[in-house]
């Protein structure tokens, strides 16, 4: 294990995690914990920035997200799992960092701009939502994380964190904070089962890892394929076909998949057969995940999260003390 590299990852507890999370980040986290010191945060404070009027949704899903973590193989003995709000030092760091960035810079961030458009806040943007990249900078620097697994759309958030680090160190003539580097995911974002957008909790177009076999099968057989592929003998399109998008992501025999695509494009392969292959594939992947998830209780996960939060807080306390000393706020 590399002790010089520290990984920080996080998820907002706004619902169960889905196959997009699994293929995009969770599988890689299981690998990363074998090589690096890993911190996995459940970002409940950030989730409140656009769910402030529904805190129960956030609170309930803290345990659910942790169950998803454990079910895929994230090991509390190898990764520190913790809750953001149980580390008050993160909030204090955020306050200090807010002085190091302008509102204009936050509004210019393309990730924030895209999310603001999706949330339809219009002229009533919560200050907490606009400033969540600063909170993320606090999360990253509190644990002196050097590697941050992200998608391409989140790269601007790492840029802001590093800008804050550089400005802090320059203003306070300090080397306390260190910059981080992104680890880009190896797979593209998983499309939603409706074929219209990326798989998303909020859009309700995802297959969740906690879905029952019956719900999984129903979602697969309702997937968008090629509307012009009416008869089995009709040539079908692979591009934009959601079933093939999921087979590309999860079907292991790539040579067999090439053969399926050729048959479909030529004509002679029905949608129901194709969906049956995908159903078998995903059922086999999710069966052990469901079994593991069912073995973990709310009491189990809260014990894990409380213990992990205590460990994480000790580290954040040390960083905060260094930050306050650099600023000159340690009074004796």
Structure commentary:
The protein is mainly alpha-helical and 332 residues long. The protein has helices spanning 19-32, 44-48, 55-72, 88-98, 103-108, 110-119, 127-130, 132-142, 155-171, 213-221, 242-250, 254-266, 271-294, 298-327; strands at residues 2-11, 36-42, 79-83, 147-150, 181-184.
What percent of residues are in strands?
A: 5-15%
> How many angstroms does the end-to-end distance come to?
39 Å
Which structural category fits the helices and strands?
mainly alpha
Find the count of extended strands (DSSP E, 2+ residues).
Answer: 5
Strand neighbour order, sheet with most strands: 1-2-3
Low-pLDDT parts are none
Number of helices: 14
Global morphology = elongated
Outline the biggest β-sheet: 3 strands, parallel
The topology string of helices and strands comes to EHEHHEHHHHHEHEHHHHH
Radius of gyration over all CA atoms, rounded: 22 Å
How are the SSEs ordered, and which strands pair?
Blueprint lengths: L1 E10 L7 H14 L3 E7 L1 H5 L6 H18 L6 E5 L4 H11 L4 H6 L1 H10 L7 H4 L1 H11 L4 E4 L4 H17 L9 E4 L28 H9 L20 H9 L3 H13 L4 H24 L3 H30 L5
Parallel strand pairs: 1-2, 2-3, 4-5
Helix pairs in contact: 3-13, 3-14, 4-8, 4-14, 8-9, 10-13, 11-13
């Amino acid at each position: 294990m590399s002790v010089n590299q520290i990984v920080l990852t996080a998820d907002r507890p706004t619902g169960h995690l889905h196959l997009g999370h699994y293929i995009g980040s969770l599988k890689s986290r299981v690998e990363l914990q074998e090589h690096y010191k890993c911190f996995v945060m459940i970002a409940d404070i950030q989730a409140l920035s656009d769910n402030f009027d529904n805190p129960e949704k956030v609170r309930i899903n803290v345990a659910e997200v942790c169950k998803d973590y454990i079910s895929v193989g994230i090991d509390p003995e190898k990764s520190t799992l913790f809750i953001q709000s149980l580390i008050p030092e993160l909030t204090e760091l955020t306050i200090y960092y807010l002085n190091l960035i302008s509102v204009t810079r936050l509004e210019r961030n393309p990730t924030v701009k895209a999310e603001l458009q999706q949330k339809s806040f219009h002229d009533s943007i919560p200050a907490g939502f606009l400033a969540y990249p600063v909170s993320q900078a606090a999360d990253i620097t509190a644990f002196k994380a050097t590697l941050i697994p992200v998608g391409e759309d989140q790269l601007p958030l790492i840029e802001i964190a590093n800008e804050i680090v550089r400005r802090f160190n320059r203003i306070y003539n300090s080397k306390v904070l260190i910059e981080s580097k992104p680890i880009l995911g190896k797979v593209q974002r998983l499309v939603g089962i409706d074929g219209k957008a990326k798989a998303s909790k909020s859009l309700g177009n995802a297959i969740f890892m906690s879905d029952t076999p019956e719900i999984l099968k129903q979602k697969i057989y309702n997937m968008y394929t090629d509307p012009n592929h009416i008869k089995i003998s009709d040539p079908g399109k692979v591009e934009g076909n959601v079933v093939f998008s999921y087979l590309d992501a999860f079907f292991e025999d790539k040579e067999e998949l090439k053969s399926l695509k050729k048959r479909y494009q030529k004509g002679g392969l029905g949608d129901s057969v194709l969906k049956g292959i995908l159903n078998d594939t995903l059922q086999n992947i999710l069966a052990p995940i469901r079994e593991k998830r069912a073995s973990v209780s709310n009491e189990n996960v809260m014990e894990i999260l409380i213990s992990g939060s205590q460990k994480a807080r000790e580290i954040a306390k040390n960083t905060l003390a260094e930050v306050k000393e650099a600023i000159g706020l340690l009074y004796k």
